[in-house]
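User: Run a structure prediction on this.
Assistant: Running it now.
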Amino acid sequence: MKEYPEDTPVAESVSFNIDLRKYWNKLKARWKTILIWTLAAAILGAAYSLTIPRRYTVVSKLAPELSNNTVNRISALSQLAGLNATMLGSTDAVYPMVYPDIMHSTDFLVDLFDTPVSFVEKKERVDTTLYEYMLNHRKGSALGWVMSLPGRAVSGVKGLFKREAPMDTTSFVDPFKLTNKQFAVANGLKKSIQPVIDKKTMVLTIQVTMQDPNVAATVAKTVNEKLKEYVSKYRTEKAVHDLDYYQKIYDETKAQYLASQSRYARFVDNNQGMVRQSSRIEQTRLQNEASLNYQLFNNAAVQLQNAKAKVQQDTPVFAEIISPTVPLKPSKPSRKMITLVFMVLGFGIGCLFALFKK
């Protein structure tokens, strides 16, 4: 039989195989230990998953109308640059790419504070605002509660040496200077609202995640409506300003026309049968004045109608591809996945324990 030196690769391979067999034998001999660790970890994972509050996700999709004033678009260059060709030449400062930034802005989030929401808590219907729900009616996980104990202890100690702060209310919210609680609520809403824009199709996907399905659907619907209002207000701001101006001109010219028409009618009624030249001249003057005011009034009426049409034209249209609906099943947490992860960890710990325990 041919023998190999101990430092040869074959000898190392043989030694390695023998070691693996030894470890395998140890694992088989202590399979009960591994099983106990795995089952214990599975039970712990299942118990931990039950402490995590369920969360419901509502998904909605909007396809905004784009205003394009460009005549010649170079689609090939836009694709090379990673841009959408429909965005070239657009004069809008608020275009779909900035919609996610709008929804995460402080002004937009603060505007959601007064949204009325309703949910069931302890078998009773609760009607309140979104601010109060985020502040006082959300549940935390057991791990989060444990992790927050040091911070609560420090805050409690600091509170002993501080004066009592005034109550935090939402009767007046200054987005420029939020209180600690208001900032916490705004930050929580920012994490709960996740907008994603498709750069190619410009379709906006909005995901709202809350612990209550009704609240999630209500917030998703409100976010869609407020985003439409914000964009519509920007797109029609100049047109609405022009409409107000032409409405004012219309009212003034109408009043002037009616006044001149009344003066002309009264003069004619009071001077019937008069043949004096001065009366005829005055009558002609009043008639010309009424005709001139009528022309101004008629032109103002045309401009007013054009301004109304301009407002209607500039008002953007949002096609709701997917409308918000109340979810029937929770999206998070996946209790099966959490239990499976704990089982894998328990199995690994059990194997290490079986291998290295003397």
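DSSP finds 13 helices and six strands in the chain.
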